[in-house]
Write a structure and sequence with these properties.
Elements lengths: L3 E4 L4 E8 L14 E5 L1 H11 L4 E7 L1 H13 L3 E6 L5 E8 L4 E6 L7 H12 L7 E5 L10 H11 L3 E5 L2 H10 L1 E4 L3 H8 L6 H13 L3 E7 L5 E4 L4 E4 L12 H15 L3 H17 L8 H14 L2 E2 L6 H9 L1
Parallel strand pairs: 1-4, 1-8, 2-6, 4-5, 8-9, 9-10, 10-11
Antiparallel strand pairs: 2-3, 6-7, 11-12, 12-13, 13-14
Helix pairs in contact: 1-8, 3-4, 4-5, 8-9, 9-10
The structure holds adenosine-5'-triphosphate and magnesium ion (MG).
Length: 330
Amino acid sequence: MTDIATITPNPAVDLSTSVEKIVPVCKLRGTSQQRDPGGGGINVARVVRRLGGDVRAIYPVGGATGDLLRNLLDKEGVQSQTFSIAEETREDFFVTEVATGQPFRFILPGPRLSAEEWQQCLTLLSRIEPFPRSVVASGSLPQGVPDDFYARLTRIARQRGAQMVLDTSGPALAAAVAEGVDLIKPNLREMRELAGREPNDAREWEAAAKALIHSGKVATIALTMGHLGAVLVTCDEVLRAEPLSIAPISAVGAGDSFLGALLWQLASRGNLEQSFRYGVAAGGRRAVEPRHRSLPARRRRASCAAGCHQSGVTDSTGMDVFSRAADENS
Ligand SMILES: Nc1ncnc2c1ncn2[C@@H]1O[C@H](COP(=O)(O)OP(=O)(O)OP(=O)(O)O)[C@@H](O)[C@H]1O
Ligand SMILES: [Mg+2]
């Protein structure tokens, strides 16, 4: 049985380059070029794979860009399960301005999916044998796909007894939560949209997460707060993580790394606190990583574990969870 299947309805091939300075009209000569797989669920699958986990990525492929995406994932050893679409798979374009270190991210609209095409994805998921233990739906929905698409996936996952994990935003997130999901990983913006109000401080953010848990629609919320760290809330515990003390290069994709490492640990060990530590470590690590540098699985795991010991995960009394465990055992 595959532990984790990720679903990315709007994947991309990300083309990255650097230019000395961005100025209008002139030809801006890139000093490098690199193509990488992109999109929420694709990124989560890559992280799980790099850590040595068992994962498959489900996504649509269209045209030459779709073929390229599949080839890039094959090279990384990520198992793909694809369905064909008529329009071309999305491309994104990232430029780093060397003079300032500023990243510029151009996100293109991507393909429009027909009703038959997005329904193929539902059929594909429902027919997987043996069914994965966790289904992770992540990223934005492409044009043509209804807001309740993730809610429909959720229904299938739950009918098959799998854990449903969601990382998305806006109406797609709200519709799936209304269906009832196991774990969500909102960032502050996504949590604000979901709560329908603007919390003022850490306590209020936690209260908003707890209110959602008590509504019975979500079992676990991993609220990531960028440089402010993260909080993990279930019906009977609250774990807080200080951010790692780092000098970030770019936090783009930190949420996907957080989620990939958390799910990989949950799948292999099942311990929520330890998984949360790994998530925080991987998110921080991503933020300091030069773009597109890839470590072998063994070194990546070691690096994550090192960050893990630094990440101060505390419970609702403010104590480090692991020192609390030590107190109880003494
Ligand atoms: N500047 C930072 N310093 C320390 N840790 C960071 C920083 N940025 C991100 N992290 C770590 O990564 C986690 C996830 O980051 P963030 O909340 O920015 O996710 P996100 O907004 O979902 O990102 P994305 O959608 O780009 O993947 C944070 O909870 C934190 O642990
Ligand atoms: Mg995110």
